[in-house]
Description:
- About 40% of the residues lie in helices and about 10% in strands.
- By secondary structure, the protein is an alpha+beta fold.
- Helix 1 packs across helix 11 (about 180-195), helix 2 (about 35-45) runs antiparallel to helix 8 (about 120-135) and helix 9 packs across helix 11.
Amino acid sequence: MKFFKVEDFSKKLVQWQKKHGRHDLPWQKNRTAYRVWLSEIMLQQTQVATVIHRYDQFLKRFPTVQALAAASVDEVLAEWSGMGYYTRARNLHRCAQVVVKEYQGVFPRDPELLESLPGIGKSTAAAIAVFAYDVHAAILDGNVKRVLARIWGIQEDLAKSSQVKLLWAHAENLLPHNESDLVAYTQGLMDFGATACTPNQPACMSVPKKFCPFESNCQAKKKNLVKAIPLKVRKVKVTQKDLTWWVLICRRKVLLEKRCQQGIWEGLWCFPEELSFEPKNYQALLPIRHLLTHQRLNIQPKQVILERQSRPINQQQWFDLSELDQLAMPKPMTDFLRNLTLTLDGE
């Protein structure tokens, strides 16, 4: 893998960011390590529009790393409910506890120390160090890999560790020499990959066409390989899984079960998939389809109206409908219960 020189790469990116980049995101104001870290974790697998709303909510509930560390993991999961990839929330909680216990509540400025914390990878560590402490460090998330691969025409498999290592070295070489440009440059890389050099409709292929400061240098554009770069080698195998949700209702209370510590939705509240008794009458409701990274769930809810509450088993518990918004639940559960509540309210 060879990297030719792009004249004034960092300068062009900084200029693009100042004119076309994002400047009013909540975490760009009053930058602290805690606020930057929280936003970076949220943005890993969630759209910016969703994070903007949830970020402010999360900060109100846990305004400091101390408040987050002092909370229970159930409280953190409840606040995270609906955003998916719940390992992020569990790591967020663990990380806060480590920062409070080992660093007196102050995130370290050294990217290597940041990377050693739960849930923080090398690129996230660099972003925190840059935005919170003005440390000279390079980021290399998925968006940045795509940008570099297209401009320099890299057609190799970027999942290979040898290629990633070379890309890291290149990303570090591209850092601006002017320290005052570091924040704008790093933000520019994020913004350019997220809004201009996007996977499917990049600026150079959009209608109407949008400005790209690197079009004259971009090897992918010159060789008509924009959609082929970065190389897509691995395909995620998606398996089908059929689930039954037993929706037991008794006088505006529902029976839920806290899922075990293994498998999908670990530690979240869902409807039971098995009961200690065989319901005599039930109503099959509209099936639910939900796609995870590696699974396509086919969920069949079966509603049972009871005169008396059944005895909970294992991790089961009866909840009033008014209590449900305080629980940590996966998105298909929250969507289903919202409709269920509206139905019951209308009766």
